[in-house]
Amino acid sequence: MPLTDTVIRNAKPGEKIRKLSDSAGLYLEISPSGGKWWRFKYRYGGKEKRLSLGVYPDISLKVARERRDEARKQLANGVDPSEHRRAQKTAKQGKVANSFEVIAREWHAKYKPSWTEKHADTVIRRLEFNVFPWLGGKPIADLAAPQILQVIQRIEQRGALETAHRVLGCCSQVFRYAVATGRADRDPCGDLRGALPPVRSRHFAAVTEPDQCAAVLRAIEGYQGSLIVRSALHLAPLVFVRPGELRKAEWMDFDLETAEWRYIVTKTNTPHIVPLSTQAVAILRDLQPLTGGGRYVFPSARSATRPMSDNAILAAMRRMGISKDEMTGHGFRAMARTILDEVLGFRPDYIEHQLAHAVRDPNGRAYNRTAHLDERRKMMQVWADYLDAIKSGKTGTDALPSSDHSLAS
C-alpha cells in the first residue's frame, strides 16, 4: 500500500533500520535514532542499486515521488541515475574551481613576482572591491560581455572612470590567462571596446602666479589644526614631492644633520634625494618630539602604525577655503616647477631632477640621484627663502634673494 503523510509522521524507529515501502521502488528508511531518508531502489546493468532522494520532512512525500519519477525517466533513456548525479556534482565542483575569482587569484599569484609590491596590491584590491562581489563566484567560461559591462559601469557611475578602464583591463588579462590555461574559450572584454568613454587627461589644480602662491601660503600659515597636519602643510611646498611620498615619509629616511631626505620614489622605483632647506629642517625638528619615536613622520590620527590618510592635506586645504580647483597636493609640484623656472631662473634639468622626473644626459643616459646635488641644494634654499618673502608680502624683485640666485648657466 502506498505511503501517506500520516503513516510517515506516526512511524516510530526500531532497534534496527526500518523500511516503509511506497511504490515503484520508492521507500522510506528509518534509522534507530529516528532519522527518515527517502531511497529509490532500481536495477541497472543487472545490478541492484539505490539512490538517495533526501530527508523527510524536508523532502515531502510528493517531492520524493517526483524525484523517483525523474530517476525512472533516466532509466528509461538508458541513464544510470546515480552516475548522472555524480557527473552533475563533478561538473558543479569544476565550475567552482574555475570561478572568476579562483582564476583571477591564480593569475595574480603567477605575475605578482614580476610586479612592484604596490602595483600587485593595487591590482588585487581593485578586483576584490569592484569585481569579486558580483562575478567572483561565477564560472569564468559562463561570463559574457553584458555581465562584465554591468560591473564596469557601476565603477563609472561613481565617477571613477579611470579606475573603470583599469579594472576592465585587469579582467581582460584574467580572461586571456583562462583561455591560455584551457578554462575559457575567449576574452569577452574585447566586445566592450568603446563601451566606456575615454579618460580625458587632467592636470592637477595648481596656482603658479606669485601673488596666488602667497595667498595659499598665508592661508596655510593660519591653519589651526593638529601639529601633524600643520607640519605636513608647511613642508609640502618646501619639498614639492608627490603627496603619497610626503604622507608616507619615514623618519629613518631623514638625516637632519646633513639636511637630506633620501627615499625610493614609488612611481619609478628609483632612489631620490631631497635637500632640505633650513626652514624644512626647522619644521621637522619641531615635529620630531611628537612623532619621532614612531615609523612615520606624519602618522594617522587613528593609529601611529599607519601613515596619514591621502585626504588629510586636501581636507585641511578645503577647510582653509582653498578650493580643489585652486590647489591640490600635487599642485605644489606645478607651482615649484613654474616659478623656479620662470621667476627664479633655475636650469630646467635641475628642476626636473628635483621633481624626480626621468632626466637623461645628452648621450641618453639616466642621471643618478646625486647629479647636480650641490646646485639643487642651493636651489631648494633659494626656493624656501622666496616662499617666505612672498608670504610676508614682498613682490617682484623685492622677493628675490639678494645674492645671485640664478643657476641657469
According to CATH, what is the class of the largest domain?
A: Mainly Alpha
Low-confidence stretches: 201-205, 360-367, 404-409
**CATH fold naming of the largest domain:** hpI Integrase, Chain A
Please list the strands of the largest sheet in the order they lie side by side: 1-2-3-4
Rg from C-alpha positions? 35 Å
Q: Care to describe what's here?
A:
This protein has 409 residues and is of the alpha+beta class. The chain folds into three domains: 5-93, Double Stranded RNA Binding Domain, CATH 3.30.160.390; 100-192, Tyrosine recombinase, N-terminal domain (DNA polymerase, domain 1), CATH 1.10.150.130; 210-399, Intergrase catalytic core (hpI Integrase, Chain A). 47% of the residues lie in helices and 10% in strands. It has a four-stranded antiparallel beta sheet, with helices on one face. A three-stranded antiparallel beta sheet has the order 5-6-7. Helix 4 (100-111) packs across helix 8 and helix 7 packs antiparallel against helix 8. The longest helix has 20 residues, at 161-180. The chain is elongated and about 115 Å long. Residues 201-205, 360-367 and 404-409 have low confidence and may be disordered.
